[in-house]
Amino acid sequence: MDKLGIAYGIVSEFSYNPEELPSWIISIEDSEIVLTSAILFQYLKRRQNLKDALTHFMRDHFSYFN
């Protein structure tokens, strides 16, 4: 995620279980949100690339994210 401009420190946990769809727990200060692959795919449908999709997800869920 660092190549996409998302810092490693905010991803506090992610799923390694191959039987489950990937998910990531993103934490900034006192806020926490789970990003699932289904949510990510919804953002990808509306954006040109993964970096734009992640940026818009972060802006939608963390008001202070630039």
What features would you describe in this structure?
With 66 residues, the protein is of the alpha+beta class. 33% of the residues lie in helices and 24% in strands. It is built from two helices and three strands; from the N terminus they run βββαα. It has helices spanning 37-46, 50-61; strands spanning 11-14, 23-28, 31-36. Strands 1-2-3 form a three-stranded antiparallel β-sheet. A hairpin with a 2-residue loop joins β2 (23-28) and β3. α1 packs across α2 (50-61). The protein is flat and about 35 Å long. The protein starts with 10 loop residues before the first strand and ends in a 5-residue tail after the last helix.
Keywords:
66 residues; flat; 3-stranded antiparallel β-sheet; single chain; alpha+beta; disordered N terminus
Can you count the helices?
A: 2
Main sheet overview: 3 strands, antiparallel
Could you give the distance between the termini?
A: 16 Å
Task: Determine the fraction of residues in helical runs and give it as a percent range.
Answer: 25-40%
SSE topology string: EEEHH
What low-confidence regions span 5 or more consecutive residues with pLDDT below 50? 1-5
Sheet/helix structural class: alpha+beta
Q: Which shape, going by the Cα principal axes?
A: flat
